[in-house]
Amino acid sequence: MVEDDIARDYRVFGREARGRSQVYEEISAHVPGDPGLREFLTALPRPKQQPNLLYGAVQYLYGPIRDWPSFRETVLGHEDEVRAVMMRRRTQTNEAARCALLLPALAALPEPLALIEVGASAGLCLLPDRYGYDYPGGRIAGSPMLSCRANAATPVPDRVPEIIWRAGLDLNPLDITDESDCAWLHALIWPGEEYRHDILRQALDIARQDPPRVVRGDLRTDLATLAAEAPSDATLVVFHTAVLAYLHDDEPGREAFAEAVASTGAVWLANESPRVIPGVEAPGPRPEMAPLLVQDGRPLAWTDGHGTWIEWL
C-alpha cells in the first residue's frame, strides 16, 4: 500500500537524521501517524513523496524548520504552495564534502583523469581538485576546507589528482548562477547541520570561476554518448553519490545503468547504500545507515552520507 511505503520512507529517514538533525528526526517520527500529512503525501506521485523533498520545499518557501508543530501547521496551511515546489523540484543535494570520500580512490588511479558524475545536480562534486582537505595525518591546502575523519587504513592522499576533463549528467541540471537554484540547494541542508551552508557558498564561488559542464540526460540511456566525448588519453571515471536509491527499487533500471557503465570501459565509483548497487553485498556489519564506497564492484569503505568520515575496509 502507498501509505505503508510513506511510513517506511519517513521512519528510515528519521534513522538517517538521528544524531544529525533533531528536528528532522522528530518530524519523521510524527509524519507516519498524522492523517493530514499522510493525505497530503498520498495525493502526490510516488517519486514526489520523499522526506527530503518535502522538507526542502518547506525550507525553500518559509525558511528553516523549527519543530514538528510549526512544520505541520505550515504544510497543512499552505498545501498548494508546498505541492507546487515539490512537483517542480527534485531532491538534488549537492554536498561538496562528499569529494573527501572519493579522493582516496581517485588519487590511486592512473592520471590524468576524466570524470563523469551522474546525478550531478549543480556539478559541485565534479571539482575535487579545487577544494582543500583535512584528514587525520594529512592536509591539502584549499578552500573550502573539507574536514573528514578517516581510520588508519584509509590511503589518505597528499595531493589532488590531475583532472583534464569533466562533465555531469542530470535529469534536471541546476544552474550555479541562478538564485532560485542556489536557494534550493541551501534549502536541502538539514537543520542542525548549518555549517554546511558555508561549505556550499564557498563551493558555489569556486564553481562560478570555471563552471563545470552538466548535461541534461538520463543516466541509464545517455551515459555512453557523454562518455564518448572524454579524451582517450585519460582514465575515465564514472561516479555517483546517493543517486541509485532514487530509482525507487527499479532493479531493471539499476541493472541498465550498470550495463551502461560497463559499456564505456570506465572505472566505476559508487557511494550508495549497498542494497542499491547491482551485484554488491555488504562486507560485514553496516554502520547505521552508512553508504558503501565501491569501485568496480569491490567494496572499499564505509562512509558518511555528507562526507564527514570514512572507514576504509
TrEMBL record:
It holds the Pfam family DUF2332. It comes from the Bacteria. This is DUF2332 domain-containing protein.
